[in-house]
Design brief:
Distance between the termini: 12 Å
Mean pLDDT: 92
Strand order of the largest sheet: 1-3-4-7
Oligomer: single chain
Shape: globular
Radius of gyration: 17 Å
Helix content: 25-40%
Order of helices and strands: HHEEHEEHHHHEEHE
Largest sheet: 4 strands, mixed
Length: 202
């Protein structure tokens, strides 16, 4: 099963709840479809930009790092935490909404400007996709990543490297977002969906 399957299910649930449309219907209306910066766009059945994420723990994968770094507008991150309750079912049990504002840019990114991130992403894309190349250049890659990663920034660089895809994503942690004082709300939920444990493309 595709890694993002359960995330897509929850995204569909939230988009239906907030806009009255399915994810498929809503994506057709967005300028760049499913590759848009936000899952829900301000002005399109919504008064706010919204990014919808899911996580099995504390770490939230925020997708393509260049896309996330390319804007400094106000937006919400809706994050649902899940447990694997049976071999074929997941339960979403807590939902956070973080209100990200332009003044949080330095908090999120620190010294990591778009050019630095784009150059690192181009470096990741220069790999040939084999395990041998990835392993041989591990130290070089880690040193490069450490050089540009602002250790005080909430967003963390997270390269993804398989023979099918070479890309750079970014990750943020729920507890660290809360600790900084970013405005947020949290509520218990109970949504059960059919979903097998995660399998990764290799």
């Amino acid at each position: 099963m595709e890694v993002q399957a359960h995330g897509n299910k929850y995204e569909d649930i939230k988009i239906r709840e907030l806009t009255g449309l399915s994810k498929k219907e809503y994506d057709k209306l967005k300028k760049n479809g499913y590759t848009s910066v936000f899952d829900i766009s301000k002005g399109l059945y919504s008064d706010v930009n919204i990014s919808i994420k899911t996580t099995g723990g504390n770490s939230v994968n925020c997708g393509d790092i260049r896309r996330m770094r390319s804007h400094s507008t106000e937006y919400d991150i809706i994050t649902a935490q899940w447990n694997q309750v049976t071999p074929t079912m997941k339960e979403f049990y807590t939902e956070y909404i973080f209100h990200i504002k332009p003044e949080h840019e330095e908090l999120l990114w620190g010294t990591m400007n778009y050019d630095l991130i784009n150059e690192f992403n181009e470096y990741i894309k220069s790999y040939d996709g084999t395990n041998a190349d990835r392993d041989a250049r591990k130290q070089e890659r880690q040193e490069y990543q450490n050089k540009i990663q602002d250790q005080n920034a909430l967003m963390k660089i997270n390269p993804k490297m398989t023979h099918k895809s070479l890309r750079t994503q970014c990750t943020v942690h729920i507890d660290k977002l809360i600790a900084t004082g970013v405005e947020y709300s949290v509520k218990p939920i109970r949504i059960v969906t059919d979903s097998k444990p995660r399998t990764f493309n290799k």
